[in-house]
Design brief:
There is one protein chain. 19% of the residues lie in helices and 42% in strands. The protein is an alpha+beta fold. It folds into two domains: 1-44; 51-195, no CATH class. The strands form two sheets. Strands 1-2-3-6-7-8 form a six-stranded antiparallel β-sheet, with no helix packed on it. Strands 5-4-10-9 form a four-stranded antiparallel β-sheet, with no helix packed on it. The radius of gyration is 31 Å and the shape is globular.
Length: 197
């Protein structure tokens, strides 16, 4: 009889201990699952060069510029990050593009309605602006001067204030005229256009 009691007590103790161990194992698994859930959540950091756009209506003309906007982040931009006298896609990542639903006159030449790549050649003096048929390309990888619809010079203005993120603006002057500008770091370029009737 005593043997049976001993065995029963031992069996009960064994069951209690193993149940506690199982509960502990289950808790550990749950904790591990929660930890892996939090580690797989996407990192919600802001992009360094956010994709953005600007647009305006000038009379019946809808002008849209699409670009990625890098920051200065305490760097030397022109003559540093962006080399002088070299083609630049005038933004980050994909080439900046401009789209118009009306023909425009820029620097005395007609730009037919459509979508175009926007490139520049920054310089210590005048910059060169190029509007190119190949609008869909990474950076300037496929830039070819033969595809330029127009190429002209523009004199930059230098400011003491820093424009932290690259910024384009389409500004309306009246129902048929406007300006397009690019500003980044201490440099700004701007040129006028006319909507062709």
């Amino acid at each position: 009889m005593k043997k049976h009691i001993h065995l029963s007590v031992l069996l009960i103790v064994f069951l209690i201990v193993s149940c506690k161990q199982e509960t502990k194992d289950v808790k550990e698994v749950v904790v591990e699952e929660k930890a892996s859930e939090t580690s797989t959540q996407p990192n919600k950091k802001k992009p360094l060069s956010p994709h953005t756009s600007t647009m305006a209506m000038i009379g019946d003309a809808h002008i849209h510029i699409d670009y990625s906007s890098p920051g200065v982040r305490d760097r030397i931009i022109f003559g540093g990050l962006v080399g002088y006298d070299q083609v630049w896609q005038a933004g980050a990542h994909m080439a900046t593009w401009i789209e118009t639903n009306k023909d425009l006159i820029i620097n005395g030449e007609t730009i037919p309605k459509g979508k175009y790549g926007f490139f520049t050649i920054p310089s210590k003096g005048d910059w060169t602006v190029m509007i190119n048929k190949n609008w869909e390309q990474h950076g300037k990888d496929e830039y070819d001067e033969k595809n330029d619809v127009i190429r002209f010079k523009v004199t930059p203005t230098i400011s003491e204030e820093i424009t932290e993120h690259l910024k384009y603006e389409v500004t309306k002057k009246n129902e048929t005229e406007g300006t397009i500008s690019l500003a980044w770091e201490k440099v700004k370029i701007e040129f006028p256009f006319v909507v062709k009737n």
